[in-house]
Amino acid sequence: MNFFEHQAAARRASTRLVVLFGLAVAGIVLAVDFAVWIAFGAATARDSGSPAALLVFSTFATLAIIGLGSMYRIATLRGGGEPVALQFGGVPVPEGTTDFNLRRLRNVVEEIAIASGVPVPKIYVLEQETAINAFAAGYSPSDAVVAVTRGALDRLNRDELQGVIAHEFSHILNGDMRLNIRLMGILFGILMLAIIGRKVLQFGGRGRDSRGAAAILVAALVAMIVGYIGLFFARMIKAGVSRTRESLADASAVQFTRQTQGLAGALKKIGGIAEGSQLNDRADAEEASHMLFGDGVGFSGLFATHPPLLQRIQALEPSFRADELDALQRKWLATPPDGLAEDTRLGLDGGSSARLPGAGDQFNVTPPMVVAQVAQPAADDYRRADAIVSTIPDSLRALAAQREQVMALLLGLLLDDDAAIAAAQRTEISARLGAAVADQAASLHQRLIEELHPMLRLPLAALAFPVLRLRPRPELDTFMDTVEAVVHADGQVSLFEYCLGRLLQSQVRESLDPARHVRFGRTKIANARSEIATLLCVVAQAGNDSPQDAQRAYLSGVQRVLPSDYLPYRPREGGPLVLDAVWGPLDDLDPLAKQALIEAITATVSHDNRITVAESELLRTICGVLHCPLPPMLERAA
C-alpha cells in the first residue's frame, strides 16, 4: 500500500467512523426518547394531548448536548498537536539543546523529517512519565507535534528510538492524526450526556420536593445510563479503528527504517520493564489512548486500542516466542535497560558514507518510481539525510535555529540570482520587515545561499520551520505577505523559487490555523482538467528551451493523467504566476487522483526518463505544495 492508498484508506476509515458514530448517536437519541416516552408520555398526553412535542424536545436536547460537547472539545484542539502535548505535561525540546539525550531525540526526528520530505515537527518530552510511550498529534505535517516519554528516552537505544519515531511519522503522513482528533471530540460529546446526567442527579434535587424535581431526576438518570451505554459502544468503535491504524503504522515504520530490530526492540522493552507503556494520568491517557505508541491505559479485549504486544512483536519477528518475553522481564526486573549505555551514537554527525550527487548529475526516473517513493523513505534516504544535514554549512544551521535570524534566512532562499529582480525583491522586504532584514537576506544569498547545493535548500527550510513557527502571529502574517510579494516581484522568478515561496506560505498558514486548512480532497481528475493542463504546461515550459521539446514534455504528462481527453499544448504567458489559481483545485483532488497527477508531473519533468538534480528538487517542491512529501534524491545518479 503506497502513500496515496494510505490516504484513500484513511478517508474511507473517516467515512466509516462518521457512519458508525452517527448510528451510535441515533441509538442514544432513540433510547432517550423511549425512556422519556415511558416515563412521561402518558402524563403528557393526559395534560396537553401532545406527547410528540416532548419527544421532539428530548431529541433536540440530546443532539445539542452531544453536538456542542464534540464541537467544544474539537475547538480546544484547533491549535493542532501542541494543545495535546501540553495536556500531557509535555516540555518542548529546545532547538539548540546540548543535553545528549535530547540532542539524540532531536537528531532522530530531524533525520526522519528530512528523509521523508516534511517540515520538522515540534518535539516534546513527557518528563514525568517513566513508561515507554510516544504519540504524534496535529492536523497536518505543518502543525504536527511528536512527543515521547522520559522512559522512552532513558530506556531505548537509537535504533529503537528511530523505530518509535518512524511509527509516529507514519501517523502524520497517513492522515491518522486528523482521525484521532475527531475521535477525541466525538467521544467527549457522548461522555457529556452521561456527565450532565450524573451532575443533575448529584445536585438537581436538593431543596425540592415537587413532582417536577422528581421528573428532572428521572430524566437525569436516563441520560446518565444511556450516555454511559453509548460511551461503551463508542469506545469499542474507537478501539477497533485504532487497532487497525496501529498495525498499519507498525508496517509503515518498517518501510521507513527498512529494519525491524529497532521497532521490535522497543516493543520488547515495553513488555519487559515494570512500567511498560502505561501512563500515570489515566484520565488523559484514556481520552488519547488511540494516539499512543503503546497501550497507555491497560484496556484489553474489545476496548484494546492496540493489538496484543506479542502479536505486534511477532509481526516483525515471526520466530519470537512468549517465553522469550518472560525471560526479558526477569532480566530487566533485576537490571532495567539503559538506552544510552547501549548506544552512544547521536546520528546526523557526518559519519554517513552517502554523498550528494553533483549538480550536473542526472537520475533515471519513471513516474511509478516517484509515486512509490512519496512518503516512503528507504534506508538510503536516511544515509542521504545524514549527508544532507552534515553538508549544510554550520553557520546556516546556526541561523536556522535562531528566532531573530530565521526570517532573513528563508527570504534569502527566495531571492533571485538576477540583480534587477533581486533589487525589486529587497525593496518589497524592506517595505514590510525593514531594511535590516532585507540587507541580511541579500547578504546571506550572496555569501552562502547561492553556493548551496540545490539539494540543501529544502532541508534547510525544513530545519528552520519549527523556529519560524515560534514568532508571534502578527509577524508571521507579515512574513507570509512578504513571501507573496517577493515571489511576485517580477514575472521572471524561477519556477522553483515560486514553488518554494508557495510551500513556505502554505506551511505557515496551516500551522497558524490547522483545523481550517486540513481536509481530505474529493475532486476527481475530470473536474480539474484546466488546472492540470496549466500546471503541466508551465512545468514543460520551465524545463525546456525549445517549444517543440516543451510540447513533447507536456503531452507526455497529459497522456499519463488524461489519456482520453484532448488537451492541446497552449503556452501560458506570465510564467509561474499563472499557477496561483491552480493550487487549490489540485490540492483538493482525491488521493488516487493526486497519485495520477504526480505521475503526470514526473512524466513532464522527465519525458526522456532522466532528470537533473535541480529538476528533482523542483519536483519535490511541487509535491510538497500538493501535500505529497517526496524524499530527497529520487534515485542514484546515472
Question: What labels would you give this structure?
Answer:
single chain; 638 residues; mainly alpha; four-stranded mixed sheet; 28 helices; 3% strand
Shape: globular
| Total DSSP helices | 28
Output the strand order for the largest sheet. Answer: 1-2-4-3
Overall pLDDT metric: 81
User: What proportion strand?
Assistant: under 5%
Parts with pLDDT < 50 across at least 5 consecutive residues: 347-351
Helix content: 55-70%
Q: What's the multimeric state?
A: single chain
Instruction: Count every beta strand, where a strand is a DSSP E run of 2 or more residues.
Output: 6
Rg, Cα atoms, Å = 27 Å
Main sheet attributes: strand count, strand direction, barrel closure: 4 strands, mixed
Task: Calculate the terminal CA-CA distance, rounded to whole Å.
Answer: 28 Å
Backbone structural class = mainly alpha
Helices and strands, with pairings:
Blueprint: H1 3-47, H2 51-76, H3 81-87, E1 91-92, H4 100-116, E2 122-126, E3 134-137, E4 145-149, H5 150-155, H6 158-173, H7 176-203, H8 211-257, H9 261-272, H10 282-287, H11 309-316, H12 322-334, H13 339-342, E5 362-364, H14 367-373, H15 379-391, H16 394-400, H17 406-414, H18 419-433, H19 435-447, H20 457-468, H21 473-487, H22 495-512, H23 514-517, H24 529-543, H25 547-561, H26 583-587, H27 591-605, E6 610-612, H28 613-625
Parallel strand pairs: 2-4
Antiparallel strand pairs: 1-2, 3-4, 5-6
